[in-house]
Amino acid sequence: MTEDIKLPSSFAEMDLSKEILKAVEAMGFTEPSTVQAKTIPLMMEGMDINAIAPTGTGKTCAFGIPMLEYVQLKDSRVQEVVLAPTRELALQIGEELTQLAKYINGVRIAVLYGGQSISKQITLLKRKPQIIIATPGRLLDHMQRRNISLDAVHTMVLDEADEMLNMGFVKDVTKIIEATPS
């Protein structure tokens, strides 16, 4: 027997921090999209999610809001990782998470991707970001150079996982996942 689950019709119904609610409002969102209404409450409960939704439906906010709600600002280790198949998507996710984090003092986000100077990224990593958005190859490169440790990661998002797998990142993604706590 399937019960009808009432989805939240506003971000305020989701028990989000005032900082996130202020950022969501500043971004021009008035009510959650379907993917956000279905996934944010589950992620806030710590559940694993596999969401499939069309482009432009708010998937980044769907995973970004719970990530920002659970980042421990006093912990300078990497706690959350978003893997993206392309630098363009990594940059887009970084911009959106930065907008969501606008009113959260002390959150540090770094975007790592191939084609950008390693030394510039090492400088970013020295700032001790709690959230990393990266392409698999570049994240592995930093892990091999020992510039980054994933031993404190509690949230990992594989954005466009199907695309990453189609592009041949299976081994890289597997190595990255294996470097995080179970």
Helix-strand layout with pairing:
Elements: H1 18-26, H2 34-44, H3 59-70, E1 80-83, H4 87-100, E2 109-112, H5 118-126, E3 131-134, H6 136-144, E4 155-158, H7 161-166, H8 170-178
Parallel strand pairs: 1-3, 1-4, 2-3
Concise account of the structure shown:
By secondary structure, this protein is α/β, with parallel strands linked by helices. Helices cover 43% and strands 9% of the residues.
Describe the structure.
The chain is α/β, with parallel strands linked by helices and 182 residues long. The protein contains eight helices and four strands; from the N terminus they run H-H-H-E-H-E-H-E-H-E-H-H. A four-stranded parallel sheet has the order 2-3-1-4. The longest helix is centred in the middle third of the chain and has 14 residues, at 87-100. The mean pLDDT is 92.
Structural class of the helices, strands and pairings?
alpha/beta
Poorly predicted segments: none
User: What order do the SSEs take from the amino end to the carboxyl end, as H and E?
Assistant: HHHEHEHEHEHH
Care to count the β-strands?
4
The rounded Rg comes to 16 Å
How many strands, which pairing sense, and closed or not: the largest β-sheet? 4 strands, parallel
Strand content: 5-15%
Strand order of the largest sheet: 2-3-1-4
Helix content: 40-55%
| Count of runs of 4 or more consecutive helical residues | 8
What integer is the average pLDDT? Answer: 92
Please tag this protein with its features.
182 residues; alpha/beta; 4 strands; globular
